[in-house]
Amino acid sequence: MFRKQTKIMRSKLKHKDSGMVLALTMIFLVVAVTLAGVMVASGSMGLQQSVNQRESHQARLAAESGLGYIAALVQQIPLAASEKEYFTNVRDGLNSALTGTKVYSKGSTLYVSPVMIEKGEGGIFSAEISKSGKNFLLSVIGKSGETSRTISMEFAANSSAGSKIFENGFLLGGKLQLTGNAKFLGKNSASEARIFSNYTSHNQSFKLTGNVRIAGEMYSANPKGYASISGNASVAGVSSRCKKIWDHIHFGAKPVELPRPDTSIFKKFATNTLSKKCKKNRNKTLTNIYIPPNTNPTFSGNTTINGVVYIASPNKVKFHGNLKITGVIVTEDPGSGKSHKNSLQFSGNTKARGVESLPHKPEFAELRKLPGAAILAPGFSVKFTGNFGTVSGALAAEQFSFRGNAGGIVKGPVISYGNAPFRMSGNARLIIDRSDYDMVPPGFTNKKVALTPVMSTYAERRN
User: Which carries the bigger pLDDT value, residue 60 or residue 315?
Assistant: First the structure.
């Protein structure tokens, strides 16, 4: 009996042990399956994270590549006389460089359609160029897969020395010498009549005698320079009788290289050669003329000129009587120290309008795109003894002289390269008006980068 009960108990224990083993097996199986699921999920998440990181890195590289490439192209495009013209030049330049990519404007913003890098394997980028205050903002969007990154940077239009100096109304290589009732004024603000002189051959940088009036500040690169003032002259609205006048006359400014224009860009427009036999030209109407060396012509009576007057060196050209020009007068640059053989003289009444006022005709189509210059005569001396009303653009020459009632409104800077004094006497006056042409004049930017990046404005954002 006892043995039978023991046997039954052993049988029950074995059955119970088998059930526990099965239960434990099932538990271990569930745990294993769960762990496997977790590992698979973790692996998938890690794989997705890896893909996201790769796409993020690729999108950023695409944006930086686009920023560098577009910036390099844009910096090769010179500034123009107006923002509208500049944006047009940028659009045309990018369309030419980015073959197969559409660059278009909408309002005041330029858009660059998506550009593939390495046939799309390196991602793609698109770009926008717009104004940001006085600067230009370049924003580039890089994309890889579903991930995109945006990088932006501003570019300054006036950050280089070559363009900053054009903020001055008068740029002089020699000293300033004004007598009588001569005046330097700004039409819209006193800053338009600001004067900068590079003259260091003698310590006298400025000589003002009589009732001279200068509306802007005066700067000299000579740290030992001084100004000689007599009579009732005034500078920046302060009379010479007041000691505060010296607060507006500055010495020791950083010297700059006065940029000389590349006048050859105008030569192709001068398609009609003036005969050397025509020493005297009276009551003539001329269009796009080229004056060969040693012609030395005189224009008198009522002279009308449309387009370009391109004057080769050496030459002594005189404009007497009434001159009406719609266009620009430019000269070949013989270099410094040759002005005794190269000169322009204007007497009588001169009326000058810019190239943008030329008729809409094929012979003027390209020339009309170069506004902002009136007389570009590097290496030539220029003398005015008559009134010229309003001149639509910059005046540049080896040296200038204004006498009597000469003068008028100049819509651009006045640049004198030589060591000789910039002279104004009698009732001569120059009024600078930069409201129409606030950028670098044509001919001055062909060989120089017009825009430079402002590194402090670099920014990156995730989209």
Answer: 315
